[in-house]
Amino acid sequence: MKKKWIRTAAFIMLAALLLATQGFAATIGGATVTGSDVRLRSGADTSTAANIITQLQKGTFLLVEEKLDGWYKVVWDGTEGYISADFAAFSETAEGTYRFEAATGGTDVNMRADASTSSSVVKRLAQKGSALTVTGVSGQWLRVTDTSGAAGYIRSDLVCYRRGAADAAAPAGSSGSVTQSGGDGLVQTALLYKGYSYRWGGMSPATGFDCSGFANYVCSQNGVSLHRSAQEIYSNDGVAVSKDELQPGDLLFFGYGAYSVTHVGIYIGDGQMIHASTSATGVILSDINSNYYTRMYVGAKRVV
């Protein structure tokens, strides 16, 4: 019985480690986002908004795994995705400005003085899951530091990236926050939670969101405080804007009139909003110009 319990505990610990980190293919270099509100997608396809993972700001650094026809396959904040090559500048070697939290994906991993197997070993990381901070890339090697301050290079296929721990969206000289200021910050934060579950009364990723709970959470992560319900937000928060003057980050309200608001979403641009829709769909993107949302549209507020 004791042996069975030990085996079960060991399995649970291994499963937790695998869930906390994710390993991907070896890198070939890095890329810096050259445009604003550049979309990271789950596939190399611009024909649908459904594959948008998030929007990245100018200066965001990405680890590049593969060059495709007009696309880069990249890793950002522990998430694998695709970005148009038109909006990213590739470099085989880039170091010192950007950080991704990571962990070793195996035992006895060698940290070397340079990006080569012939280079001297700075340190041997014996334990799988040893914490690392990635500070640069050189082809298939990552420049890293560990918790003791030791610095060197590790092969990228031996590193797993922790999700949600990146300072990746911050350009050089910035504070390192993932979110950006203004409406772009709201959009970037909101898109991180696409696909999360809907829950009546929910206000956090752990519980799920209802529509106003989602708007509250996203805004709170960007230093903006809102009233609780969609009706209260519409009546009390922000500055009214017309539909033809919408900007990313504006809050959109739907219902049966100014005194009967039943739903709120966040405008992300190109006629799309992100919102906690229903228990069947969770947090999704929707076309605000569809028949239903056109008919139910009440107004918009700018809160940043």
**CATH architecture field of the largest domain:** Roll
Order of helices and strands, N to C? HEEEEEEEEEEEEEEEHEEHHEEEEEHE
Q: Helicity level, as a percent range?
A: 10-25%
Number of strands: 23
> Which percent range describes the beta-strand content?
35-45%
Q: Determine Rg (CA atoms, Å).
A: 22 Å
Overall domain count? 2
| Contiguous runs where pLDDT drops below 50 for at least 5 residues | 2-21, 165-180
Widest sheet: strand ordering: 1-15-9-12-13-14
- Report the CATH C-level class of the largest domain: Mainly Beta
CATH third-tier fold name of the largest domain: SH3 type barrels
* Euclidean distance between termini CA atoms: 59 Å
Question: Taking all residues together, what is the mean pLDDT?
Answer: 81
Spell out the CATH superfamily of the largest domain.
Answer: SH3 Domains
Shape: elongated
Biggest sheet, open or closed, and with what strands and sense? Answer: 6 strands, antiparallel
